[in-house]
TrEMBL record:
This is Uridylate-specific endoribonuclease. Keywords: Endonuclease, Hydrolase, Lyase, Manganese, Metal-binding, Nuclease, RNA-binding, Signal. Residues 1-18 form the signal peptide. Monomer. It holds the Pfam family XendoU. Its EC number is 4.6.1.-. Belongs to the ENDOU family. Transmembrane segments: none annotated. It comes from Lingula anatina (Brachiopod). It comes from the Eukaryota. It catalyses: ribonucleotidyl-uridine-RNA = a 5'-end dephospho-uridine-RNA + a 3'-end 2',3'-cyclophospho-ribonucleotide-RNA. Its cofactor is Mn(2+). GO terms for molecular function: hydrolase activity; lyase activity; metal ion binding; RNA binding; RNA endonuclease activity. The lineage of its organism: Eukaryota, Metazoa, Spiralia, Lophotrochozoa, Brachiopoda.
């Protein structure tokens, strides 16, 4: 049996249709649906306040232009009580920042991963993403199959350095890592806020702030420089998982361009190129 035929049969057995070509209009439609469905999003000036301070004008700059923190306030009591936020935050201390050190996942951590996936799958945002992916032939019609797909994309361990199982898509995107004396990943505002609050992250200033709560900034984390990094601010964990998953499955390794309520957005995702038997996410972020 040919490899291509076998692949088609496997997709059929898993309840996945043949994948359709996805247009920018398709992406705009689903992204707008996800954005408008994000009832757990935090709203600036209601749930949190930012203190942007000075704008950085050169990517070569390594000068701290911000005397204060980026987040001047955040309603933790309200936001962190939300189930998806609580389950998300529980995962953030499960990882070793330095690449090249094997990540051992305990049974407790595995249960936390599963609890997080279960919680985001309850949300309208994630259900809309699944419906889109299923309709377009990128995901299973089975709830168990879709959860397994998310688990594989986000939590499969692989090597980023020295051949050791030292990373995963979730760790890189949402927690952050240190490789070759530089911060990589860490594209999430909740982790940024918590690390800044704990004194582990020093905000240096911002390059640009755009519509759809996007910001590109510079900082030191664990005394290691992030020369430039972008993230959404205020979006819920389920929104980011949903949008990045849609872009990763439909536009991996290329710009995922769309408009949300008329505002332009470009998301970049990469897969783990040396693993060819399944799709595993290497990175995802708004290309601000």
């Amino acid at each position: 049996m040919g490899i291509r035929l076998l692949g088609v049969l496997l997709l059929t057995w898993c309840g996945v249709k043949s994948a359709q070509v996805i247009s920018d209009n398709d992406l705009s439609t689903i992204a707008t649906t996800l954005w408008n469905s994000d009832s757990n999003a935090a709203i600036e000036d209601r749930d949190f306040r930012l203190n942007l301070q000075r704008k950085i004008t050169s990517y070569n700059s390594r000068t701290d232009l911000a005397s204060s923190k980026l987040f001047s306030s955040l309603d933790e009591k309200k936001l962190f009580a939300k189930p998806t936020y609580a389950k998300f935050i529980a995962l953030l201390n499960n990882y070793i920042a330095q690449t090249g050190r094997t990540e051992s996942v305990s049974s407790t951590e595995q249960r936390e991963n599963e609890a997080f996936l279960d919680e985001v799958l309850k949300t309208t945002v994630m259900q809309e993403a699944w419906k889109f992916l299923q309709t377009k032939g990128y995901s299973s019609s089975s709830a168990t199959g879709f959860k397994g797909q998310l688990r594989s994309i986000w939590f499969t361990a692989y090597s980023r350095a020295q051949g050791r199982q030292d990373t995963s898509g979730f760790e890189h995107v949402f927690v952050g890592e240190i490789k070759n004396n530089a911060v990589t990943g860490l594209h999430n505002w909740i982790q940024f806020y918590l690390q800044e609050k704990a004194g582990q992250l020093n905000y240096y200033g911002y390059f640009v702030q755009r519509q759809l709560e996007q910001i590109k900034l510079q900082y030191k984390w664990l005394n290691t420089m992030k020369a430039a990094g972008s993230m959404f601010v205020g979006t819920s964990p389920e929104f980011e998982i949903a949008l990045y998953t849609v872009c990763f499955l439909t536009r991996p390794d290329q710009p995922c361009e769309m408009r949300i309520n008329g505002n332009y957005l470009r998301v970049i995702t990469y897969d783990v190129s040396y693993i060819t038997n399944k799709k595993i996410l290497a990175s995802a972020y708004p290309d601000t």
